[in-house]
């Protein structure tokens, strides 16, 4: 038995079972950055109000907080397209995965006769 190309696994008539696991991305990239923009505007406005009132040390911490939240949003966005797929073809179990930008297709189990 030969390994079928990764793009043909779903349409191959020999495929007995096809399972795909993906993250639940409830917001797209544009919506995530829109939420971040609203959060940043509110946080900076509040920090500026405290700075005007005399508590100026709030402003650098607010900027640091927004930088870390932006970094976290960016890291989550990079991994949003990751998926794993298990395919049973005859007596073989294939694992296909995409992590970050790398893609791997591995044969995990082949039944012995």
Strand order in space, largest sheet: 1-2-3-4
Percent strand equals 25-35%
Query: Span between N and C termini?
Result: 13 Å
Overall geometry: rod-shaped
Q: How many helices does DSSP assign? A: 2
Fraction in helix: 25-40%
Q: How many beta-strand elements? A: 4
Q: What number of structural domains do the residues give?
A: 2
Please give the structural blueprint:
Elements: E1 15-22, H1 29-52, H2 58-78, E2 83-89, E3 92-99, E4 102-110
Antiparallel strand pairs: 1-2, 2-3, 3-4
Helix pairs in contact: 1-2
Q: Characteristics of this structure?
A:
alpha+beta, four-stranded antiparallel sheet, single chain, 2 domains, 113 residues, disordered N terminus, rod-shaped, 40% helix
Describe it.
This protein folds into two domains: 1-23 and 81-113, no CATH class; 26-80. It has two helices and four strands; from the N terminus they run E-H-H-E-E-E. The chain has helices at 29-52, 58-78, and strands spanning 15-22, 83-89, 92-99, 102-110. Strands 1-2-3-4 form a four-stranded antiparallel beta sheet, with no helix packed on it. Strand 3 (92-99) and strand 4 form a beta hairpin. Helix 1 (29-52) runs antiparallel to helix 2. The two termini are 13 Å apart. Mean pLDDT is 83; it is low at 1-7.
């Amino acid at each position: 038995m030969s390994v079928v190309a990764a793009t043909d696994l779903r349409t191959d008539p020999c495929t007995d079972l096809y399972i795909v696991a993906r993250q639940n991305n409830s917001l797209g990239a544009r919506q995530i950055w829109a939420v971040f923009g609203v959060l940043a505007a509110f946080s900076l406005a509040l920090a500026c109000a405290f700075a005007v009132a005399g508590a100026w040390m709030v402003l650098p911490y607010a900027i640091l907080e927004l930088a870390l939240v932006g970094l976290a949003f960016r890291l989550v966005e990079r991994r949003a397209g990751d998926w794993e797929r298990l395919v049973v073809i005859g007596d073989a179990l294939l694992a296909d995965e995409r992590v970050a930008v790398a893609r791997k297709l591995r044969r995990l189990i082949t039944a012995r006769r």
